[in-house]
Amino acid sequence: SFIVSTILFLLVNGGLTIDCPNSPSQWCKSNEIAQACDVIEQCKTYVWKVHEDDNRVHLSIYYETLCPDCRQFITTQVWNAYQSIPDIVNITFVPYGNARELYRPETKLYQFYCQHGAEECYGNLIHTCVLNFYPKSEQHIPFIYCMESTDGDTETVATQCAQKSSIDYDQITACTHSRLGNQLQHEYAVQTDSLQPPHQYVPWITINGEHTDDMEKQAEKDLIGLICKSYKGPNPPAQCK
């Protein structure tokens, strides 16, 4: 039907404005052409949006839940970026940081040792389970932000934050006490320990899989600026200009 409307558009306009090209492959080349062909909405949904997704910047944050620098970074830089430029960035959280793991053959489970003690290991595990059951950014980022910006007993804070962000905390608790939770945390351990270059501190960030000290400094000062600079897509958001 939009081919018919395109032809009508051309007849009515007598070709005085920009003509709509014969070949549909040209219709989404620019805003003006899409308008001339009366396919703006289709271009937005099926062509431009897809390209935007392909061009997204991949930001990964390797952190641990009770590290003061991680909390500061997540509740300011990451939270601001998530709220201002969500369309050009994919944010991945890896809650493990400077922890170590030891496999226990007798239980067939991993035991974790964390920089800020058992409480932090528990916090990491809670985040791990939330990321597993709530994989979309809009589901888990408000929860992570809430936990990282609230002081207090890990269990109490997690329960309150789950309520605020519509997360089923019973499901999360069950996961933290299960083999599944243990296995998921082990996978984050492997991911963190196989970083190249190996991480030396937390938070440790990568942009499109790469890390440099310079990038880290920029991220901690102006993450939005760094993401905008790394974005190669055709339509940078207003915040990047």
Automatic annotation (TrEMBL):
<keyword id="KW-0964">Secreted</keyword>
<keyword id="KW-0325">Glycoprotein</keyword>
<dbReference type="InterPro" id="IPR004911">
    <property type="entry name" value="Interferon-induced_GILT"/>
</dbReference>
<dbReference type="Pfam" id="PF02199">
    <property type="entry name" value="SapA"/>
</dbReference>
<feature type="signal peptide">
    <location>
        <begin position="1"/>
        <end position="17"/>
    </location>
</feature>
<dbReference type="Pfam" id="PF03227">
    <property type="entry name" value="GILT"/>
</dbReference>
<dbReference type="InterPro" id="IPR036249">
    <property type="entry name" value="Thioredoxin-like_sf"/>
</dbReference>
<comment type="similarity">
    <text>Belongs to the GILT family.</text>
</comment>
<dbReference type="GO" id="GO:0016671">
    <property type="term" value="F:oxidoreductase activity, acting on a sulfur group of donors, disulfide as acceptor"/>
</dbReference>
<keyword id="KW-1015">Disulfide bond</keyword>
<keyword id="KW-0732">Signal</keyword>
<protein>
    <recommendedName>
        <fullName>Saposin A-type domain-containing protein</fullName>
    </recommendedName>
</protein>
<feature type="domain" description="Saposin A-type">
    <location>
        <begin position="13"/>
        <end position="53"/>
    </location>
</feature>
<dbReference type="InterPro" id="IPR003119">
    <property type="entry name" value="SAP_A"/>
</dbReference>
<dbReference type="GO" id="GO:0005576">
    <property type="term" value="C:extracellular region"/>
</dbReference>
